[in-house]
Each structure stands twice: as C-alpha cells, then as structure tokens.
Design brief:
- With 470 residues, the protein is mostly helical.
- It has two domains: 25-215, Ferritin, CATH 1.20.1260; 240-466.
- It is built from 19 helices and no strands.
- It has helices spanning 20-23, 30-55, 61-86, 101-111, 116-140, 147-174, 180-192, 240-244, 251-264, 267-277, 284-310, 323-331, 334-347, 354-364, 367-390, 398-411, 416-421, 431-442, 448-451.
- The radius of gyration is 26 Å and the shape is globular.
- The chain starts with 19 loop residues before the first helix and ends in a 19-residue tail after the last helix.
- Bound molecules: fe (ii) ion (2 copies).
C-alpha cells in the first residue's frame, strides 16, 4: 500500500463511502453477492406473503393493521432487491425460484403457525436471523465495488429493525413464546438451509426436514376475525351515507359518520388480502401495488380510530361490522372482489365522493378531520390508478371492467332481514351513543334532530350503488 496517501486537502475519500485503507481489502465475489441477495429477496417475499395471508384471520386489530403495514414494507424491499439483482450480470434472474428447500420449509412453518402468539414469535425468529445475515453481508461485501447493494440493504435494515421492535413489544405484550419443540425445529431447518444467506457450514445430520406445523398444505383462511372490542358484527342499523349526504345535517356530526366509515374500512384489507393470497402468478408489480393499497386501507381505518379518540368518543360503542369483507370473501371469486372494489372506488371520484368528504371535514372546523380526509382523498386517487393498471387491463375496455364489478356487486343481495331472523343482530341504533359522547366531550348540547337519526340500511341494496364502502 502506498504510504502516506491522502485525499486532496484531506477531503473525505471515495465519495464518503469508506476509508482508502478499508477499500484496499477485497470483498465478496459478485456471484456470492448475487446468491445472498437472492436469498434476502426470497425472505422478504415470503414475509410479505405470510403477513398478507394472515391479515384477514388475525383477530387483533393492532396486529391486523401492523401486518398490512409490514407486508407493504416487505413488498418495497422485494422490489428494490429485484432491481439490484437485475443490475448484476444475472439474466436469467431466476427470482421466482426457491433458493433452498429448507429455506422454503422455514417460512412454510411460520406461515402455518397455528396461533397469533406462535406466528409473532416465528416472525421475530425470522427477523433476527435475517438481521444477522444482513450484518454479515454489510461487513463482508466491498464498500466501493458493491456500494449499490449496500445502499439497498441499509434501507431494508432500517425497516427490518422497526419491524423487529414492533414484534418484540408484541411478543412481550401477548406473552408469546414459540413452543420449545417448534423452536428447535426452526433452528434445525434453518441450519439445514445453511442459514438465511446459505453461507453457514453444512450441518452434520441431514435427515428429513423436521416440519411441524407445515406438514399439511397451507390454505388461506378467508373468514375475517376480530378481537372482542368489535361486537354485533352484522349490524346494519345506522345508514352512514344517507346522513353524510343529507344537506340538512351539520358538518360536525357528519365528521363522526365519516370517522365511522374510515374505521369500518378495516374490512378492506380483510378483503384485499384474500385477492392477493388467492391470485398467484402475476408480475411482481401487481403484488407491490396491491399491498400498497392494503396498507392504505388499513391506515384509513386507523385514521378513523384516531379521529374518534381526538373527539373524545369511545369507538367501540359504534358497530364496526364485517358484513362487507365476510360476504365478498365467501361469495365472490378473487377477480369478482377486485371488480367490486374497483367499481366502488370509481364511485368515490365524482363530486359527491372524496372531494365532498374533504369539504365537509373542512367545514366542520375540526382540524384533524380535514387532515384525515385530505390524505384519504389522495390515496383514493392512487387506488383508482392501481385499479386501472391491474384490474381494468384484464378486460377489453373500462366499460366491460366496470360492468363485471357491478354484476359481482349485484350478486351480494341485502342480508338485512336474514341476519335479523337468524338472531345474528337486532340492527341496534348505535348513533345516539356516539353523538352524545362527542357532544359531551366538546361541551355542546345535542341537536335533537341529529340525535333522533335512525335511518338504517333496511331495503337498501347491499352495495348502496357505490357509496357504502371505502
Ligand atoms: Fe380507503
Ligand atoms: Fe381505496
């Protein structure tokens, strides 16, 4: 090495990547980098798949929404890794191949975890293992020659750490620990894969993989589940849209109905997760974009939650129902569900849709309501574009795509009477309880006409022709 070599005027050398001395040491060969990056790509793809597939059937709302978030983050890192691998002299890319059967089994096991507690402890196990493999890569690859990969992994690491923090707190809160036998199986299976990155020594005994939960083929569970704060799940006792579009009603009360509609949107991730889980073989961009929308819809639900808390309202007194996701998931094909979603979202774009909601929020003088509706509107514009890209293009034209969605929606006839007769709900009117709480918190007297609101969904088409959902 040249002694006393210094950069000009002692400026940081090598564009700030590392010291000259560090850069004089060799790094991993390119082929080895590609091999490991493909494994990281596979890990994020599987985590994305697992988290998505559990959104619907996870009862706990805080986890359901977190799964939507983290599945989206994983999808973004899959996208970034695919891009990077494609730059590394590597066609054919083989990005849909399984890097090692034991790595596949490792994620199959987590996907098949029978309880929430096992699932989150399995996710923590996987994230810890990926984190170690990332650290090895970042230490061993050349900081100058492989700077583009290092950059991709640094960003991925940031969000992987966020996920780890979340699931560590979650496992503590739930008292979740993997079953000791299962834990040993995960250790053994991962050893068989020679670690996440495939760089660990071959294990001594290589008998059959000690699968436990994944011995049976995995099937996606389309039935939505909710935690105990969600009650009376078939209730259709308060027609939120009829109130919202009634010109005689005050904007502040309409905000409560909008917050209800936002929080009720938790049914959209429950429904969309199934479209993703049950539609294999699409280009990766489909899964990335659909996952972005799943995450947006989970955020919309959380915006409703936040709005209610801000206004001093206990949202559990409203009825955050699952009628929509339950029925679509059990009565429509994935493509029909996508059609229904697109059909409804098209109805949100005209003057009476998202712009109107934003204007009502502004008029209410409730600042958080305006913030919520402002961004909700923007998200819906994006969703309309996602629908045009991935749903409409499967049809000859926009009209055919809309007609397919409309026909699927029409199939879902109103169950207002059936669920009442079956004793599943009495369609109780929850509105006065919500409205009175908001009035009490703001120190205002209830408007008697608003308090008396009692219009239900009885006799309405289940679809409300595009004003119901989301
Ligand atoms: Fe939404
Ligand atoms: Fe949407």
């Amino acid at each position: 090495m040249l002694p006393d070599y210094t950069p000009y005027k002692n400026l940081p050398p090598l564009a700030g990547l590392c010291s000259i001395e560090e850069a004089t040491k060799p790094g991993l060969p390119l082929d080895e980098c590609v091999r490991r990056l493909k494994r990281f790509h596979y890990c994020f793809k599987r985590l994305h798949e697992i988290l998505t597939a559990r959104i619907t059937s996870e009862p706990i709302y805080e986890l359901k929404t977190a799964f939507a978030h983290h599945a989206y983050l994983c999808a973004e890192h899959v996208t970034a890794l695919r891009q990077r691998i494609s730059e590394m002299r590597e066609p054919p890319l083989g990005l849909e191949d399984v890097p090692h059967p034991a790595l596949e089994a490792f994620f199959d096991e987590i996907r098949a975890a029978p309880t929430t507690e096992e699932l989150v402890s399995g996710i923590v196990f996987a994230i810890d293992a990926i984190d170690l493999a990332f650290a090895d890569y970042l230490n061993q690859t050349h900081p100058l020659t492989d700077a583009p990969s290092k950059r991709v992994l640094r960003f991925a690491n940031l969000e992987l750490d966020d996920m780890r923090s979340f699931y560590q707190v979650a496992t503590d809160a739930l008292g979740a620990k993997p079953h000791p036998d299962w834990y040993l199986s995960l250790v053994a299976i991962l050893a068989e894969a020679r670690g996440i990155d495939g760089s660990k020594p071959e294990p001594e005994s290589s008998g059959p993989l000690p699968r436990q939960y994944s011995r049976c083929p995995f099937t996606y569970d389309p039935i939505p589940k909710r935690d105990e704060r969600f009650t009376d799940l078939w209730n259709q006792g308060v027609n939120a849209e009829a109130f919202l579009y009634d010109e005689t009603k005050p904007a502040r009360a309409k905000v409560l109905m909008m917050l209800f509609k936002r929080l009720r949107e938790i049914d959209v991730p429950e429904m969309m997760a199934g479209i993703i889980a049950q539609t294999p073989g699409k280009p990766w961009g489909y899964y990335r974009d659909m996952s972005r929308q799943v995450w947006d819809e989970a955020r919309h639900a959380m915006m409703g939650e936040v709005g209610f808390v801000a206004l001093g309202v206990d949202w559990t007194k409203a009825r955050i129902t699952w009628n929509w996701s339950y029925r679509l998931n059990t009565e429509c094909s994935p493509l029909e569900r996508h059609g229904v979603l697109f059909f409804i979202e098209q109805g949100l774009m005209p003057r009476t849709g998202k712009r109107y909601e934003y204007e009502v929020a502004n008029e209410s003088g409730i600042p958080i309501a305006a913030t919520i509706q402002d961004f909700d509107w923007a998200d819906e514009v994006l969703h309309s574009q996602i629908g045009r890209e991935w749903y409409v293009k499967q049809f000859d034209n926009l009209q055919a795509a809309l007609a397919f969605g409309d026909a699927a929606w029409t199939k879902i006839t109103s169950n207002w009477t059936t669920v009442k007769e079956q004793g599943l709900t009495q369609h109780a009117n929850w509105w006065p309880a919500i409205y009175q709480q908001a009035c009490a918190a703001s120190g205002t007297a209830p408007d008697q006409a608003v308090l008396a609101y009692a219009e239900t969904y009885e006799g309405k088409r289940a679809d409300m022709k595009g004003v119901v959902g989301e």
